[in-house]
Design a protein that fits this description.
alpha/beta, two-stranded antiparallel sheet
């Protein structure tokens, strides 16, 4: 394993809990109207979060995508001050320091950079949601990170908390290790998925050692 790709929200830092995705959902529907059920993987996210992210997936390649993303980003930015680090974050970052690494996230660039800075997360590469890349669970963001890190996807492991992260890793032909999305260490993946109770354990399962 030559590189690690970290999801951001509820993997490194919990921003989702404090983001009013309900209001973001209302904002998006005022812009583009309501949607029928969207064909995206189930998660343990609340309905507004899943809805907002699913709309971004459905609009991939649509000229309305940027305006919708920016409307959601306003609510993500408002949550930065209340966000908190996931357990053992700094210990995990130290463990991964000698490895090529990136953050690959569905969060928009401005709030992603702001929340990483707030918690002192120094990761050399950030691949946020952006209009030229199909968002997770598609492979595009992960493949872009691998390209910029100059490492083959097969030599890369994604660390993430959701089924969207797992599916994106599968689509990109990267390895995957799940991590608990809550502070109690309970994992949300079914059988057959290697999972850690916290970030350090997830990295150890991915093959990193102190």
């Amino acid at each position: 394993m030559e590189a690690v790709l970290f999801d951001l929200d509820r993997t490194l830092i919990d921003l989702q809990t404090y983001t009013d995705y309900g209001a973001a959902w209302q904002d998006t529907e005022s812009m583009i109207g309501s949607w029928d059920d969207l064909p995206t993987p189930e998660t343990d996210w609340d309905a507004p979060t899943q809805r907002c992210m699913s709309i971004l997936v459905a609009l991939s390649g649509d000229p309305r995508w940027t305006d919708v993303s920016e409307a959601i980003s306003v609510h993500e930015m408002a949550a930065v001050a209340a966000s908190h680090a996931m357990p053992r974050l700094q210990e995990a970052l130290e463990l991964a320091r000698g490895t090529r690494r990136a953050v690959v996230t569905l969060v928009a660039e401005a709030p992603a950079r702001a929340v990483l800075a707030r918690h002192g997360v120094d990761v050399p590469l950030l691949v946020p949601r952006r209009p030229d890349l199909r968002p997770k669970p598609a492979a595009d963001q992960l493949l872009e990170a691998c390209r910029l890190l100059e490492v083959a996807p097969s030599r890369t492991v994604m660390i993430g908390d959701s089924t969207w992260d797992r599916e994106a890793a599968h689509n990109a032909r990267c390895g995957f290790v799940g991590v608990a999305a809550t502070e109690d260490g309970a994992t949300r993946f079914g059988g057959g998925v290697i999972t850690g109770r916290d970030l350090v354990e997830a990295l150890e399962l991915a093959g990193l050692e102190a």
